[in-house]
Amino acid sequence: MHNVTQSEIDALSEHDQRDRTRFWRVARYGNLECLSATFFTQRFPRHTHETYVIGVLLAGCNSYVLCGGTVHAVAGDVAIIPPGEVHDGGAADIGFIYRMTYPSVDVMREIAVDVTGKPQLFGPSFDQPLYRDPDIFALLRAAHERMETGGDGLAADELLIAAYGLLILRHAKLGSPPRAGQERTILERVREYMDVHFRDEIDLAQLSQLAGLSRFHLIRTFRANLGMTPHEWLLDRRIRHARGLLAKGEPLAEVAVDCGFFDQSHFTRAFKQRMGVTPGVFRAG
Questions:
Q1: Is the Cα dihedral 279, 280, 281, 285 positive or negative?
Q2: What pLDDT does residue 2 have?
Q3: Which residues, in sequence order, are CB contacts of 230 under 8 Å at separation 6+?
Q4: Range of the domain at 272
Q5: Does the pLDDT at position 157 exceed 90?
Q6: Model pLDDT for residues 208-261, shown as the tens digit of each residue
Q7: Which of 1, 21, 127, 142 keeps 20 to 30 A from 186, CA to CA?
Q8: Rounded-to-integer distance, Cα 148 and Cα 22, Å
Q9: Residues 20, 134: one domain?
Q10: Is residue 253 part of a domain?
Q11: Cα separation of 29 and 169, whole Å?
Q12: What are the φ and ψ backbone dihedral angles of 20, each rounded to 5 degrees?
């Protein structure tokens, strides 16, 4: 495998020079991931998160497909994407500025317990991808800014817990499992195979034989039920694995190999497309 320098990686990464990103983690909430970003031309391919995505739009419009519909998040919106939901995203006709957090299911469930005073088997679910709620918007923005600048951790804690708590209290459904997908048993076999063998070179013929479907039918069925093609799902699985390794501080070249990428430049490009920041920035956060 050919290792490249960081300057070569930066040259290979496709991005608008006006884009600005800052990524960091907050240890107090299970290494809560936070992103502050300005994007003008960035487009994210279809992907998923194991966590919730909860944040605020400060300016512009972030347009993305979620649950079969198109969402246009604009300034003043509180945006939510549940764990595991396939979505894309990026600038529409204009750029956008947002502040995002990525709380785990456990964190949100714990806050739901605090809010209700009752045990919760599942994380909270939400009926809408956007809420126009000035109170939650202000709390979440203030919490995010506090966490970015550091300093008074207690003040940041109070703001964040208040923001998530009010979001759950006003808009969440509690006590119900996440909505069931339409996944077929046959596709589960394919997904389970790719989940185990994501580091390997997998071709469509293998998956077609495993599913007992033609290659054409497999692609169409996979996309119709899971919102992604098999290749898109495999890339997403590799990036999710990479996130865990990078959070531990593993070397970039080793992460690229362990996740099944051809070389470090391919890994960097795929990671930045989906995360908005390079692997080096994500690891340093």
A1: positive
A2: 40
A3: 190, 194, 202, 204, 207, 218, 219, 222
A4: 185-284
A5: no
A6: 888 888 777 788 888 888 888 888 899 999 999 999 999 999 999 999 999 999
A7: 127
A8: 9
A9: yes
A10: yes
A11: 20
A12: -135, 130
